[in-house]
Amino acid sequence: MNLSLNLIWKILKKKEKIKFLFLIFLMLLNALSEVIGIASIIPLVSIIVKNDVSFLNNFTFNFDLNAFSQSENFIVFALLFIGIIFFIKNIFIVYYNWYLTNFHVTIAARLSRDMYSYYISLPYEEFSSLKSSKFIYNCTEGVEVFRNGLINLSTFILEVILSLAICTFLFFLDPKIMLSVVILLSVIAILYILIFIKKNVIWGNNVKESTKGRIFTLAQTFSSIKDINIFSGEKYFLKNYDTNNLILKKYQKYHLFFNTLPKIIFEILIVSFLLFIIYFMIQNSVASSEDILIILSALALAFFRLYPAAHRIVSSLQRADYVSSVLDDISHITKKIKIFKNEYKDYYSNKVIKIKNQLELKNVCLARKDKNDLILKNVNFIIKRGSVVGINGDTGSGKSTLLDIITGFLIPTSGEVVIDNHEIVKLNKSWFSNISYISQNINLISDSLTKNIALLVKEEDVNHKHVDEAIVLSQLSNLVKNSTEGKDQFVGENSIKVSGGEKQRIGIARAFYFNRDINIFDESTNAIDEKTESVIMNNIKKTFNNKFTIIISHKKETLKHCDQIYNLKDGILSNA
After folding, report:
1. How far apart are CA 515 and CA 205, in angstroms?
2. Are 153 and 5 within 8 A, CB to CB?
3. Which residues of 463-486 are buried (b: 16+ CB within 10 A; e: fewer)?
4. How far apart, in whole angstroms, are the C-alpha atoms of residue 421 and residue 167?
5. What pTM did the predictor assign?
6. Residue 526's closest CA among 549, 551, 550, 544?
7. Which helix (H) or strand (E) is 496 found in, with range?
8. What per-residue confidence (pLDDT) applies to 552?
9. What gap in Å lies between CA 11 and CA 324, rounded to an integer?
């Protein structure tokens, strides 16, 4: 629990820590209200069996309650007082539960947003090294585990405070009984925790890894459904899913089952102990039968509130070990978030990089990560404003890597990126505002055609005139005419409502809409028929006649529109 407390405390922000301390204050009041509720059973039972509250004279100072109980309307006032106490107590508990719930969900939502924001703000090279299952798990299931851990910690603190308050009450009622109960419950709790502390850590880590495995299989299924159908891969993927599912079920079962045992054990012990007290008091005539009934009523209520508290304390300690692995991962990420801006200050520099006349690569090399072999070897490349440059090469020759350097996604191992005769050591995020990058695999969002062309532009800021022009230039007019919804038609999740060629033309329409300085077309017309492609390529050359245009293609018909053509082979760039 100490480890979980430290990890959660590190994850919380300053204002959240203050709110958490206020929550602890509310827990103190909650415990006090519970004790008052338990204590109020004494006058209630005393009124029923003795018609007075003389029993309370043992707990008060300088006030004759017996005399008070002889007054007129005493029973009415006493019952009304007890009723008011319970009403106020429960109103407070309603407020406490609202504050507690709001506290947990607000922090979880903030943490999920922070983590998602951190991941999507990472430089491309670092983001691309992430496992999709870890990314999804940390932003969703991981945050949910943290929220449960926070609830667990709150429960632990509340129940400890409540148990101490009830024990204090029992001490004034009967010190010997209080000490006996505390020793009995403590010994059982400690033994149980020592037996299962290591097992819970192992179970929690296995649940975390198997959950990531399920997410990974689901993500692969979604992206590979055609291959699964064609190559009859259903059994293979189902086997992978079942493997993780069975591991998850196994360790969740262990944790959940053994988490129920303390409650049963404590209940048996408490009931047995209470029966023993009843027998002892009756056999030894320690008090009048009325007083015994009053004491036993208070003890019974205290015990039956104490044993759930003891169970929750033990369960909280178990869960703390169970979720410690996930909390450790999240704590590690939150540390990265705190130093993120400083670590990537060059990438997020306020310096705006613009291009006027020329982009040049000088002796650029790029080595594979953790390897010595080069993907690009002393690449020299120049493109001037107003020119259209073509690059061809076999698959795996390094074309996409070269484009990743030009776009700023990758940093060269050596060499220079020179913009308008000024060397740029690192291209920062502002560089992206110069570029439209259209790949052969266009990603479409589940929205209208307009929103997919004016991608990520707020609805009120969309320039519909430019959208219309882009539709014409990219040869999408028939797609618009053939739909009753026109350019507001929904393209469907994963673009299932458009063909491969139409999908590529939507991507090209984006370049026309944004009309940026550098326009890169990476095999972006390979699914388009030759006649349509020829019209589009002419439109590209006319529209971007004063821009920088780079075309990657295997097709000679496509490259004939270029002013200069380079060939890339085995990482070496040369004039074609």
Report:
1. 50
2. yes
3. eeebbbbbbebbbbeebbeeeeee
4. 79
5. 0.75
6. 551
7. none
8. 93
9. 13
**Cα–Cα distance between 300 and 241 in angstroms, integer?**
50
384 by DSSP, 3-state: which? strand
Amino acid 66: pLDDT: 55
What are 256-268's pLDDT values in tens digits? 787 777 777 777 7
- Cβ–Cβ under 8 Å, residues 571 and 397: yes
Does position 133 have pLDDT exceeding 60, yes or no? yes
Q: Please, what are the domains in the chain?
A: 2-343 (1.20.1560.10), 358-575 (3.40.50.300)
**For residue range 497-515, what is the model confidence (pLDDT) as tens digits?**
788 899 999 999 999 999 9
Strand 388-392 relative to strand 548-552, pairing: parallel
Quickly tell me which residue has 């419950």 as its tokens.
Answer: 185
Amino acid in the structure at residue 524:
S
Alpha-helical segments (H) within 174-288: 175-223, 225-230, 234-284
SS3 543: helix
Closest CA to 177 of 270, 267, 268: 270
Report H helices in 358-398: none
| pLDDT score recorded for residue 427 | 74
d(CA 38, CA 30): 12
Contacts 24+ apart (CB under 8 A), 127-136: 129/369, 131/212, 131/216, 132/215, 132/216, 132/219, 133/212, 133/213, 133/215, 133/216, 133/219, 134/212, 136/215, 136/219
Q: What average pLDDT does the segment 468-481 reach?
A: 94
Residue whose structure tokens are 């403590």: 186
Provide the β-strand partners of residue 552.
391, 522
**Closest listed residue to residue 94, CA positions, set 151, 163, 26, 164:** 26
Task: Tally the residues of the chain.
Answer: 576
CA proximity to 299, closest of 479, 177, 419, 425 = 177
In 393-482, DSSP assigns E strands to 414-419, 422-424, 435-438
Mean of pLDDT over the chain: 82
Question: In terms of C-beta density within 10 A (0-12 exposed, 13-18 middle, 19 or more buried), how is residue 120 classed?
Answer: exposed
